[in-house]
Amino acid sequence: MEDLKSGSSSCTTVEEFLLDLKELFGRKDDKMMKLAELRKVEQRSKTIEESIQEFREVVRRSKYKEWPLIEEFKKGMNKVIRRKLMKVERLPRSIDQWYKHTTNLDRHWRESWKEEERLKRKRD
Question: What pTM value is reported for the model?
């Protein structure tokens, strides 16, 4: 903008100016859109396998690497599973390890819940 005001812009055509604008502002918007898309993936009532599948699809398009992926993955998982995972002695280091550990915890939690429901019905 300063170059435009001072008349010292390197752009000689409107097309060059628009490309420069896109270069300057487009990248941030694109990154923010990809991050927003990652943040939309939440486990809710889905199994963690279903959530991971959806998350991986968004990751493939986003081209994000380890740290932001782990943070966004943790935010999207069920609180119960996240709390259980945070209690383990050694936290996973890679996104693939997070997928594996959360899958195991989610399966165990669902099996435990079913067993508790079964036992509760037996008592009643």
Answer: 0.65
- Strand, helix or coil for residue 118: helix
How far the first Cα of the chain sits from its last, in Å, is: 73
**Predicted pLDDT of residue 89:** 85
Residue from 102, 53, 51 nearest 76 by CA: 51
pLDDT the model gives residue 10: 66
Q: Which domain holds residue 14?
A: 2-123
1-15 average pLDDT score: 60
Distance CA 24, CA 10 (A): 14
Residue owning tokens 């991971």: 52
Burial string for 40-75 (b: 16+ CB within 10 Å, else e) reads ebebeeeebeebbebbeebbeebebeeebbbebbee
> Which pLDDT belongs to residue 22?
65
Q: How many domains does the chain have?
A: 1
**Contact of 80 with 45, CB cutoff 8 Å:** no
